[in-house]
Design goal:
Shape: rod-shaped
Structural class: alpha/beta
Strand order of the largest sheet: 7-14-13-8-12-9-11-10
Distance between the termini: 37 Å
Mean pLDDT: 80
Helix content: 55-70%
Strand content: 5-15%
Number of helices: 23
Length: 705
């Protein structure tokens, strides 16, 4: 892996200066977007209410109305109240009170996405569907409300957000009111539910108490004969006789009432008259029979029949009223007899309890009394608890109270303009710096010599300035001859000096160097020619070889196209180089020999550069020349330059200013570093010349610049 130099402070400052436009553009775009958002964003207002939750249990009817809880229980109580505040029950009640379903802000509406779907013919839920109304409104209300506990205190904050400040305050206050009202209602409902449960138990206990009392009386009645012999008092015998008479009279009256009521309900007047034995009722019944006899003898439909039927109906009404009065009197009589019967039962019970009873009888009576006492105590306890719960249901109080109501805010809580602008600026600067670093060291083109030195470890020998050619100039290399004191010519002399100094320890008297690049069209051919002319101007014997067999270009820079090129020579090197072979010519503007190419190859050429003919040519050139410069194909598209690299003493890698990506430069350097001899130096140069000729590709046609 290639190790890069550490960027120092001056290099960092230079990088920031080079990438300043990108950083400023990033900041301007992001801050502009933030300003656009702030300009179009709807202000949101937040209003908060504060609730205090008292975790102690409250009973206003108890002597000690408040009982404390443990710390864990208190925390659980408060957290539970927070969740209750967030529940749908509170949300739905708030929605109903404020009619939020009809609110443009919280009610359902078609979003832009839904409108697009409708335009495309896609079905979307109707906003008027009741389920959609409730679901959408509750979801929006839930998103607009925030319920949270204030630290570890007993306080709960209820915050609501809305585009309208008063609506925000109304939502917060309404939620608090609904929550407290539901809290009281829940406690009341719980008390009433307990009352209903107790009422069922009381009814059962009452029935058991009545049954236990009846069991005692039944025992006495069923065992009157045995008890009479055991008690043996005259009073008991008298009470026994009176009880039998009263019971018989009561049963007779009950039977009479049942028969009379059945006859009255069935309209059996004869039976009713016989059962009740009332003189007035007898007289009315006699009139009824007389009218019925006359009615039977009267012609149907006549006026007399109508009058008789009206009279009959009137008599029947009178009989019902008279029978009702008699039945009422019988009912009163029955009540009196039942009271008398009960009194006699009590007297018998008292007389039995005072008598000298057998152990068996005493045991039975004691058992019956115990059952009665137990039933009575149970009934009394349940009845007392029922009255307590009914009273509690009327005096329930909430465990929470409002300590601070929400008020309509003056200033919006969102968007926070200063915060958003600050964050946007900070983020923009960060993104700008990140893009600057990325553009400087990864994806961007090389724009400075210091940047180039940070990318590859080899020496960067200089920068070629941008130039503008005259109409009669074919290449920037012409400036070496036409303008020897120009900045461009001086940059080439500086490059020559770097190469010479880097090869001082080379044992060979002839310098063989190759000029290459990472990609197409980076100015390597014009640089090779300009460097050759610079050496020639210094009095060196120079040979320039166009080894770019795939797409030779040197002949264009000197304005001469040979009949055959270097490719043809390597294919058939049997003929000796001479005047009969025109690929070797003299540079018309310097003392430089040039081996030219003619046309682009139609077959792979890397094997030709590995032939003995090419090696012999370089060996012969070393014997007769001071400097041999080889123009090679670029490194990344083709492999030819890799086979030339082991044969040279120095390598000059040209990089097009602002266009060659840094990754391409690294890849090209890595390839040439792997292919060259270990001691062969690699020099890099930044070519800022913009008078280049564009390529379409090595296997395509030329394109216009």
């Amino acid at each position: 892996m290639i190790q890069t130099d550490t960027v120092d402070l001056s290099g960092l400052i230079s990088m920031l200066r080079r990438q300043g436009r990108l950083i400023v553009l990033s900041v301007a775009i992001l801050v502009g977007l933030a300003l656009l958002y702030l300009f179009n964003a709807t202000p949101i207002y937040t209003s908060s209410a504060l609730i205090y939750v008292d975790p102690s249990k409250k009973d206003l009817l108890a002597d000690a109305p408040f009982s404390s809880m443990s710390g864990a229980a208190e925390n659980a109580k408060i957290e539970s109240e927070v969740e209750i505040l967030r529940s749908n029950r509170v949300l739905f009640a708030t929605m109903d009170r404020l009619n939020l379903i009809q609110s443009p802000e919280f009610g359902p509406s078609l979003s832009r996405l839904d409108q697009i779907k409708i335009a495309l013919g896609i079905d979307v839920p109707s906003p008027h569907d009741p389920s959609v109304l409730v679901a959408t409104t509750s979801q929006r209300l839930s998103e607009a409300v925030q319920i949270r506990r204030k630290g570890l205190t007993y306080l709960i904050s209820v915050s609501a957000q809305s585009a309208d400040p008063q609506t925000a305050a109304d939502i917060a206050n309404t939620m608090v009111e609904v929550y407290i009202a539901q809290q009281v209602a829940s406690k009341t409902e719980a008390a009433l539910a307990s009352r209903d449960v107790l009422q069922a138990q009381i009814d059962t206990a009452k029935a058991q108490l009545s049954q236990s009392e009846a069991n005692f009386d039944t025992f006495i009645i069923d065992n009157l004969t045995r008890l009479s012999s055991e008690v043996g008092t005259e009073r008991f015998a008298t009470l026994q006789q009176q009880f039998k008479q009263a019971r018989d009279g009561t049963l007779q009256t009950q039977a009479q009432l049942q028969t009379a009521q059945a006859a009255l309900d069935g309209g059996e007047w004869d039976q009713l008259t016989t059962t009740l034995s009332d003189a007035a009722l007898y007289a009315l019944d006699r009139q009824r029979r007389q009218i019925e006899q006359r009615l039977n003898a009267t012609q149907r439909g006549s006026d007399a029949e109508i009058d008789l039927r009206a009279s009959l109906a009137q008599i029947q009404i009178q009989m019902e009223e008279q029978a009702g009065q008699v039945v009422t009197a019988l009912q009163r009589n029955l009540s009196t007899k039942q009271e008398t019967l009960n009194e006699l039962q009590g007297a018998l019970r008292s007389e039995v309890m005072q008598g000298d009873l057998s152990p068996e009888t005493l045991a039975t009576i004691f058992e019956l009394q115990q059952e009665s006492d137990i039933a009575q105590r149970q009934y009394s306890t349940l009845l007392s608890r029922l009255r307590d719960i009914e009273a509690q249901a009327l005096v329930q109080v909430a465990d929470s109270r409002v300590v601070s109501e929400a008020i309509a805010p003056i200033y919006p809580s969102a968007p926070h303009k200063k915060l958003i602008l600050g964050m946007a600026f900070t983020l923009a600067v960060g993104i700008g710096l990140g893009m600057a670093v990325l553009n400087e060291y990864v994806i961007g083109g090389v724009t400075a010599l210091s940047q180039l030195r940070n990318i590859v470890p080899g020496p960067a020998v200089g920068t070629l300035p941008k130039v503008t050619l005259m109409d009669d100039q074919l290449s920037v290399a012409d400036l070496i001859v036409d303008e020897p004191m120009s900045l461009f010519s001086e940059a080439l002399r500086r490059t020559r000096a770097h190469v010479d100094q880097g090869l001082r320890s080379a044992p060979s008297s002839c310098i063989v160097m190759m000029v290459t690049s990472a990609n197409l069209g980076e100015g390597k051919s014009s640089l090779a020619l300009a460097l050759a002319r610079t050496y020639a101007a210094a009095g060196k014997r120079v040979l320039l070889i166009d080894a770019d067999l795939r797409k030779p270009a040197l002949h264009k820079h000197i304005g001469f196209k040979p009949d055959e090129g270097f490719l043809e020579y390597l294919k058939d090197p049997t003929e000796k180089v001479g005047v009969e072979r025109t690929f070797y010519v003299a540079d018309p503007r310097s003392q430089t020999g040039i081996i030219l190419g003619r046309e682009q190859a139609e077959l792979p050429t890397d094997q030709l550069l590995q032939t003995e003919a090419f090696s012999n040519l370089l060996a012969s050139a070393r014997q007769s020349m001071d400097v041999v410069i080889i123009d090679t194909p670029p490194l990344l598209p083709v492999v030819d330059a890799r086979y030339i690299a082991p044969l040279v003493d120095a390598i000059l890698l040209t990089v097009r200013y602002g266009e060659t990506s840094q990754s391409d430069v690294r890849d090209a350097y890595a390839q040439i570093n792997d292919a060259k001899a270990p001691d062969t130096p690699v020099f890099t140069i930044l070519n800022a010349d913009e008078t280049k000729t564009a390529y379409k590709g090595y296997y395509g046609a030329d394109t216009a610049p």
